[in-house]
Design goal:
Layout: E1 7-10, E2 16-17, E3 35-38, H1 50-56, H2 60-70, H3 76-79, E4 108-110, H4 112-118, E5 122-127, H5 137-150, E6 155-159, H6 163-175, E7 178-184, H7 190-198, E8 202-206, H8 210-223, E9 226-228, H9 234-239, H10 242-250, E10 258-262, H11 267-281, E11 290-296, H12 301-309, H13 334-344, E12 348-351, H14 353-364, H15 372-386, E13 395-400, H16 408-416, H17 422-425, H18 429-435, H19 446-457
Ligand F0G binds next to helix 6, helix 11 and helix 15.
Amino acid sequence: MMQVEHQLRCTGCGRVVAQEALKEDFRCPECSHLYEVEYPAWSANSAADSAAQKRNLPNPSALRWLWKERRTSPEHKDQSGVWRFRDLLPILRDEANIVTLREGNTPLYELPRAARSLGLTRVYAKHQGMNPTGSFKDAGMTTALSVAHELGFNWVACASTGNTSAAMAAYAARAGMRSLVLIPEGKIAWGKLSQALDYGALTCQLHTDFDGCVRVLAEVVRRAPVYLLNSVNPYRIEGQKTPAFEIAESLDWQVPDHLIVPGGNLANSSALGKAFLEMKQLGLTDRVPRISVIQAEGANPLVRTMQANGGTELIPVEADTRATAIRIGNPASWRKCIKVIEATGGYVEQASEAEIALAKAEIGAEGIGCEPASAVTLVGLKKLVAKGLVQPSESVVLLLTGHTLKDSDYTIRYHRGDLLTEEEIAPLRPEIEFTRRNTVELDADVDQVLRALEKAVQP
Ligand code: F0G
């Protein structure tokens, strides 16, 4: 059994509510801002005095040992890279309600080629695409869907650019629950759509964009007993903190200097920031990384907002990018994200369509690969290095959010040469041509294959 040790604090007016008082849209009825989960025993905002707080702090060395030890346990909740950190996620009344696909425990890869070409020594990729449904969404889905399960809901729902819906449908299926997916018609990658269908979701393609799907779903959850699993749900954020614990653990509890994250609805950056700030507060680490958020040029409300007013008022945009996962113009978690960028001293950058496609091919050429949205992180790193904001001695982690097979259509079109327009390619033509590997069509003839090989080995 877990004790109920959490409460929810409005990130706008600061009002604290219990789980039962949450509205179905997860917004504060007073000021309409989002909530965040808080643990009175040790959260910074809690009313507990500092002596009491100290008494309740988990012991960092004991926790580190326990979390490592659990990886070899036969229990599913221990094998999960999310729930093995459950001491810092007391959001369920009963652990029997955990719905897990043994998510998390994703690799932290080195990117030696990127490091070399940028004059850096330590560049890593935390590959959240190596999760059960192929994206970082699984980490937050296991926590929020477990809460839905515990609360007795039969139906869960989300609006999605594809990955959330794939994750939600899978976890709902595991729990014997039903799921409703709203996706923008024609604007999600086939891999993701196929997952939602296979996992049995009721999948509605709406004639609108992601932001339109969000608006429709807000009304649906008010009228029908379905539990909303978009990232406005604060329990999603709790699970999405755990890759930060894993990054610190993989680096022997040293924190990287920089963490670079793609920005769409801006929940993931918020979650990772919350995690690093909480880890420091708990004495698990002694500092936080600069957390920078990178958007696609055609879906850049955060970039515009920071430029126009320093982050005080969101400037929504009509979003368009081939990195469909982050084709979002009106991000729900923008305030939380800006707080994290400010608290950690991070930066905001944007990536053009050609820069994204090239960076994706470069990550592929490291033998790793990712989906287009994840590749904005490498573009961001290049820009921060060029501006002197990342130093050669500093360590960097790129957060890769989705698996390369999520959007193989994009990859094939890039290599075939019909993804980008001539105008888009122009500024990066030599680099793009260097990374393109189209298929070679030949007869079933040994000599023809040998000739192709000879051509390929020529310098
Ligand atoms: N990368 C990928 C692969 C994504 O699927 C998303 C968001 C993001 C980055 C951005 O993360 O929204 O937390 O800033 N995908 C959502 C979805 C919106 O519906 O799958 P964020």
